[in-house]
Amino acid sequence: MLMGWSTSTGVSVLSAGSGSLSMAGSLFGGEGLEIDANSSIYLIAPGKYLGNQLNSYSQFIRISVTPTSATPTMLDHDILLEGDGLTLGARYSQSDAGLSVQLRETVGWVDVATGTAISKSRFKSVLSGLTRLSVSVSFDSDVLLSSVEMGTAMSLSQINSSASDLTEVRHVEECACPSNYTGLSCELCSSGYTRTASGRCELCGCSGLSDDCDPETGACFNCSGSATGPSCEVCVGGTYGDPALGVPCMPCPCPLTTPLGQFTDECVLTSSGDPQCINCPPGHTGECVGGGGERVGGGRVCVSNSILTADDNYPASCFTLLVVVVVSCCCYSELCLVVLSSMA
């Protein structure tokens, strides 16, 4: 029952065996954690007790110690809850059944920083994102701590409804939420929504290219249309456009979009709405040097208007096929590509 717990001094319960703690004690005829009197330490809960614990609202944290007559001696708070920037504290309630604390704001929980009572909404905000649970194990005599339990509620859809030992739980609310919220108290953003600075859940801002984003940061996932970025606002390499303004990402035409006819796969969208190829190889640019060449597939083949020769460094197959053709009918036209493809 104590698997994964550690002490406020950083000692794992499973490795405890010196100082004020020892495991598998036999002093009281049982198994658990032997704790010396007035140890003044807290046990820190493992991860399964943390995160969204709204299902535990109004339930109890129960601590089983032997002897049950041992009196807690922690001067401040027996139980500490941390979350949503707050630390809440409360004292144990002691009975013959053991020690317990109800997870409800009306039973003495206070804001540790101010010493003031906490509202229901603030208490639930801590439970909805619990980051640390600390349990005092300081008593006026040596004790054997056998278990720490935190009650939680489940809906009938989550369990076997034919079970005979079901107990109805009160005070755990399950709200009917608007479409942009989910969770027992509508404390979470639904899929496709993210929390804004105002705390409201609004549609993901993904430029219409994704319905999936982080519910807290708003960062978009699974952008479509060759887009990327936190808002699907940027085109991936080899494409150009402006997704944020509704301009789709298109392959760079430099001058063609096919591998054989593409001198570079880097381009940008200009203010005129046309693509501009960048990082072209020598003798080529997005707008032809000296006006030479012919527009092909949305770009220009940028060489001087002259008869092709072997010195022009075109592919050998192209040079052989079009050795007497002027560049204005260059071998990077769609017609030539079709011919070359058929010859491959």
Written account of the structure:
The chain has 344 residues and is mainly β. It has three domains: 6-150; 173-243, Tie2 ligand-binding domain fold, CATH 2.170.300.10; 252-343, no CATH class. The chain is built from three helices and 27 strands. The protein has helices at residues 120-128, 316-321, 334-343, and strands at 6-7, 21-23, 33-35, 42-44, 60-66, 79-83, 86-90, 93-95, 98-102, 110-111, 116-117, 130-136, 143-150, 181-182, 188-189, 193-195, 201-203, 212-213, 220-221, 227-228, 234-235, 239-242, 247-251, 267-269, 275-277, 295-296, 299-300. A seven-stranded antiparallel beta sheet has the order 1-4-12-6-7-10-11. A six-stranded antiparallel beta sheet has the order 2-3-13-5-9-8, with no helix packed on it. The longest helix is centred in the last third of the chain and has 10 residues, at 334-343. It is elongated and about 90 Å long.
Strand content: 25-35%
The overall pLDDT average reads 75
Alpha-carbon distance between the two ends: 71 Å
Shape: elongated
Order of helices and strands: EEEEEEEEEEEHEEEEEEEEEEEEEEEEHH
Task: Describe this structure in a few short sentences.
With 344 residues, this protein is mainly β.
Name the features.
344 residues, elongated, 3 helices, 27 strands, 6-stranded antiparallel β-sheet, 3 domains, mainly beta, Tie2 ligand-binding domain fold, 7-stranded antiparallel β-sheet, 7% helix
Topology summary:
Blueprint: E1 6-7, E2 21-23, E3 33-35, E4 42-44, E5 60-66, E6 79-83, E7 86-90, E8 93-95, E9 98-102, E10 110-111, E11 116-117, H1 120-128, E12 130-136, E13 143-150, E14 181-182, E15 188-189, E16 193-195, E17 201-203, E18 212-213, E19 220-221, E20 227-228, E21 234-235, E22 239-242, E23 247-251, E24 267-269, E25 275-277, E26 295-296, E27 299-300, H2 316-321, H3 334-343
Antiparallel strand pairs: 1-4, 2-3, 3-13, 4-12, 5-9, 5-13, 6-7, 6-12, 7-10, 8-9, 10-11, 14-15, 16-17, 18-19, 20-21, 22-23, 24-25, 26-27
